[in-house]
Every structure is written in C-alpha cells, then in structure tokens.
Amino acid sequence: MAALPENPYNELAWIVGEPIVGAGTWIGAFTVIDGSGGLTIGEGCDISSGVHIYTHSSAKRCVSGRRFASVEREPVRIGDRVFIGANAVINMGVSIGDEAVVGAGAVVTKDVPARTVVVGVPARPVSRVEFVDGDAEPRFTPIPD
C-alpha cells in the first residue's frame, strides 16, 4: 500500500498541489486538501478531521464520456481564523471570509461571508459571529429566517 505524500501539517492528510497555508493553521487527520486549482488557507485556521477541500471537478468530463476533455479548476480562498468542522466539504471556486465557522458535515457550494456560521447540505447561514466589548469569547447570534 502506498503511503500518503509527506506534508508539514499532518501525516494522515492527503495534500495535492501547492496550497498556501497561513501560520498557525492546524489540519486534521483524514483530510483531502486539493490545491491543484489554487488554494489559500489563512492564518490560525482549524481544518477538522475528514474535511475535503476541492479546487477541481471532473463531473462534466465524466458524464460526457470524456468529450468534455477538461478537468475544471477554480481557486478556493479561506480567510484567517476560520473553523471548518469535521467531514465538511468545500467545493471549488468558494471563498470563506475571516472568522467564519463551517459546521460539521456541511457542503459549502457558495461563498461564506466573514463572521458567518454555515451548516447543512447545501451549507446555509444560521448565525453571525460577534465579539462584544473586547471579550475573548465570541457570541453566535442567530440569523432570522
């Protein structure tokens, strides 16, 4: 059985391409980090175990019987101090703003604004991240339906 390519983040993570990863970012085990289409992960992020981040899609190539010969690629940008919960999936072309939270198991198909909590499939905003009066502990304020 072939070993995973070495990387400086986690011996059990599979990292493809050359993503840019900011200082203090932690990447958990059993993650797939696809930098083949361009990937920037900011400083101080936590990428939980089992997360998949994709910067490519071969769906059109596959269903066309390879008549559509290209593997599509679009960059992903993840801001600073972003938390991505276990087993979340980030699709190609998505930007996630600073201090956002992606809930466990979420599938992110659209951009996530800064300081926004998203959950579900597809991921949708459910609350805002707020810091009050210089408190270190953030508060999560629900977004009305």
Automatic annotation (TrEMBL):
InterPro entries linked: Hexapep, Hexapep_transf_CS, Trans_hexapeptide_repeat, Trimer_LpxA-like_sf
Keywords, ordered alphabetically: Acyltransferase, Repeat, Transferase
Transferase in keyword set: yes
PROSITE patterns named among the record's database cross-references: HEXAPEP_TRANSFERASES
GO MF annotation terms: acyltransferase activity
Domain of life: Bacteria
CDD domains found in the cross-reference section: LbH_MAT_like (cd04647)
PANTHER family attached to this UniProt entry: ACETYLTRANSFERASE (PTHR43300), ACETYLTRANSFERASE RV3034C-RELATED (PTHR43300:SF11)
Name of this protein: Acyltransferase
Species assigned in the record: Schumannella soli
